Batch of 3 targets.
Target 1
Amino acid sequence: MQPNHQNKTTFLGYLSTIGRVTGKTRTVKLRFVFLDGKFYASRRDSNANWLKNILRNPNVVIRVDDREISGYAQIVKDQELARKISELKYTDKNKKEEPRVVIEITPK
């Protein structure tokens, strides 16, 4: 399920959510972490529209290269896992240690 062109743990891709107000598809470019068959995205706070959309409707699509992967998203409550995702995602020490809201996307 990992993106074909990547042997890395992190990659840039697109996340599509359903708008919580409009019901229309909304797409943003994000850096993802792929770990143990699941995808992860994160944010410093919960103010991002894509994150608010997930809280309303957890069905998402990840697009990388020519592949689309449907998934189910949820907030990571395990703080140890959230720290691990930040360590994999960022090279900057401050960003690695910054508390983040982490979303786990399980492919369908």
Target 2
Amino acid sequence: MNDNKDFIKDGNRFYMTDDSGNMIAEITFPETAPGVFTIDHTFVDESLRGQGIASKLVQAAVDEIESRGGAVEATCSYAVRWLEKR
């Protein structure tokens, strides 16, 4: 469950669900200007915290944005810190 392959891609969003279909992790990155994608939201359910899921979500979003030739920005505080450490 911890691999990027477990994330469901839905446009400018990746997410995970539990066995009951409840969302347990999510990241969104809308295109806020032509070719610029802003990571604006990261959520990880308490049941998954401490497993590196948030980091994997941000990495998946960055990989997707870069594969589209886009620029990455962030307003989500977690993603801002993650990008600064990159």
Target 3
Amino acid sequence: MFIVIRKYTVQRGAASVWAQRVQDGFVPLLRQMPGFVGYHLVESGQDVIATITMFENAHEALASSELAAEWVRDNVMELTRGVPEYTVGSALITALKEP
């Protein structure tokens, strides 16, 4: 599994608006991408949002990063402050709740 973690600083009070736009517009696009495994959006501090995107391989994850950059630019850029930080890599451990 390959993971992309992005951290965005947003305008004061904009996290819920950002999250709703992502739910309505970006998540459906991710679900259509080959190799998509999962996505989480986390409010990780005052005016900070982090996203965790999981794909089956690096090629698919990097394609999602290109999509994310375009989508942010076109849909939530006015709510964003500064440039996002991001990191990418292969998952060394994945632990899920057992059924």
